[in-house]
Amino acid sequence: MLDFEFYTPTRMIFGKDTQKQVGKIVKEYGFKKVLVHFGGASAKKSGLLDQVTDALKAEGIDYVMLGGVQANPTLAMAKEGIALCQREGVDLVLAVGGGSVIDSSKCIADGVGNPDTDVWNFFLGQGAPKKALPVGVILTLSASGSEMSASCVITNEEQGLKRGFNSVTHRPLFSILNPELTYTVSKFQTGCGTVDIMMHTLERYFGLGQDTPLTDRIAEGLLKTVIEAGRTADKEPENYEARASLMWAGSLSHNNLTGLGRNFFMQVHQLEHELSGMYPRIAHGAGLSALWPSWARYVCDGNVNRFAQYAVNVWNLDMNFEDPMKTALAGIQATEDFFKSIGMPTSLKELDVEPEKIEEMAVKCTNYGKRTLPGIKVLGKAEMMEVYQLALQAGN
Amino acid sequence: MLDFEFYTPTRMIFGKDTQKQVGKIVKEYGFKKVLVHFGGASAKKSGLLDQVTDALKAEGIDYVMLGGVQANPTLAMAKEGIALCQREGVDLVLAVGGGSVIDSSKCIADGVGNPDTDVWNFFLGQGAPKKALPVGVILTLSASGSEMSASCVITNEEQGLKRGFNSVTHRPLFSILNPELTYTVSKFQTGCGTVDIMMHTLERYFGLGQDTPLTDRIAEGLLKTVIEAGRTADKEPENYEARASLMWAGSLSHNNLTGLGRNFFMQVHQLEHELSGMYPRIAHGAGLSALWPSWARYVCDGNVNRFAQYAVNVWNLDMNFEDPMKTALAGIQATEDFFKSIGMPTSLKELDVEPEKIEEMAVKCTNYGKRTLPGIKVLGKAEMMEVYQLALQAGN
Predict the structure, then answer these.
(1) Do residue B15 and residue A2 have CB atoms under 8 angstroms apart?
(2) Distance CA B112, CA B301 (A)
(3) Contact assignment for A217 to B214 by CB distance below 8 Å
């Protein structure tokens, strides 16, 4: 087990109707003026925004609103939020939405907390925020884990760059999780969320390290739960227990509980970022789903026993002691079959990725030759191209 | 899944030699004067106290020391600590020890934070602390989970009362966990810790609730890990990985992660508190070990499937679908055999408990007829006596 720090100070408030408590919770902390930050029309149409503002009004808490956050939240939108908060004297950013809205809120919080710095600098690794406005969350999508994490990813459209960084300053103070709010999430977005949650744990599980039995058992248990709940939510969108399992797993999957004592490098996430960077129409979860089986088959012989452990402990497959590789590959196949069963793509062909773009994606993923990605197999440009190529040919 | 709140703001710093970072960590927070609170001679003899004070000195941090905390930490000792902190202007209580030292430190922190209230009132449920001095921890024993929990148990020797309460005010700000510091813990105390850690999860696992698959998988994974690590640590006290698994499991086992979405009532803990209250020579872990198998056999028919799940998922036993009770009982037997294998008692007879004391313990456990304990089976005086009686006859 490697040394680690674990710090998850976000207060998680989980259960039915919990969004209605938001006024009381905000008042308890003593905040006076809230930025209610949200995405598109669905939060309005569902009545959720009215519930939130009613709850704030009932406690006499002032608020301003800023909607319109889209997938891949932009720096421009965050800057609009920063200016609004400064103008209005906001003391809490309340994200009502999924990962995009939460990340936009985190960026706003950092911007307001550090008025003398261009907030984009933090995403370029130039300096770190010293403080930030507190962030609260009402979660409407089980996927990113941003509601309990220190991470934040923002797209600078002018520069065509998507960048992320971690900071304790913007980790949410509290997050309100009502699984019922995800009943209306589409089949496709539910599938994307299921894949994203699994991937946050799989990237850690297939990182480097040993002697992490507790972390392994937690990771395997989370994966088993998400597989079952993902299947159920796909068929029964209003199944509370399935939605609840996905939502809680989403938070635990990216707060690092499932990676403690191990090293990990998020290879598949990095490969996917270039993919959806090149093709903004590709949803993050769909990109991960299309890449993972090919990535896994490519790196598998670097740690056959680890993939066999995954097959046995997550998929309940029998261990082939004579030929562990068979077990390892069966676990990857089971994952691929599951992704397909919930309507997720498992090849880049399904996503209409053009073969001639592969080299460009690989070049970008090496940051123009400046890095390789460590892991079970180290990925440089050539290896990345092979993974993309395999993912393009998959299913043929 | 029942609604829940989950809040674990303690910063956990885990790994080799981490105690040497304590000066830097304390300085980072800006504390000026530390109470170094500890137990007996072992912290001195091992050189740990010197390491701690050297690390503080190296950062120019002033400190005072108060040692002598014993198992079942007393109100008198805590009051001495409160007076010392007030006199010396202490702004951080640093617990160097196990659960007893941590709980004593929490009580001191509450006392200093609320100078107008007798701190014992909080333990009697009369009022709650408004604030507290921050508490830091350097852990030397894997057992209580107090290093990441809001709970605190103190004994008022004058009144012959042992009482506990939970408060976010005294939850540790940071905890430093170096598994190497537990190499010198005796076989018996290691066994007691192993049982205590398991019990914190078992009490939750055998509480009331359903549809908690993620919580269940985490609980089962923790139990499997602790069983294996407990076995190894019993044979190889200086096995880092086993000590590390026990230490991390100890923290996760009582921060509520393994009980989220369920109701639980700590029946075995309540029964044990009367036992070690009556016989202070009985260690908490030994009392739990002596009671649990009998408690489990007594309540088992109230939820046979849950006990069968435990047998299959924790002990890898085959499910007897024709007679699930056989599987359930086999799981209890496996637990009992494990306790024995690490030198822990599994009957009250081994602990020289007198049969004539049973009624008195049961009466006290009902708080003199004022309560019953909810659970798989509701325990009133008569039922408690039956459990004690079974535990007395066990192994005959």
Answers:
(1) yes
(2) 48
(3) no
